[in-house]
Request: fold
Amino acid sequence: MKKIIIIAFLSLSFAFGARADTPVSLNIFPKAASFNIGEEFVLDLKINASDNYLNAAQATVNFPTGILELKSAEKIGSAFNFWVDEPTISNDKGTLTF
Reply:
């Protein structure tokens, strides 16, 4: 049985500045430290822009299809108020694209 995950774009964190040479990172934070088989859980995706200005993001998150199933991707509370493309889930390919 697979674990089911829900990705929440709840709080994208930004630090604003002017340095273009500082890397940007996408981090995934679970709400709990461990999970049981078949249990649903929520992960927050957070972007750390370091000292960069940021007004858009694009990414593909890969996950193992044999043990995880992505149920939904929610944009509630996202720092982005405009999305060119809605988040797309493929449990066959093991991807979340936004």
About this structure: The longest strand covers residues 40-48. The mean pLDDT is 76.
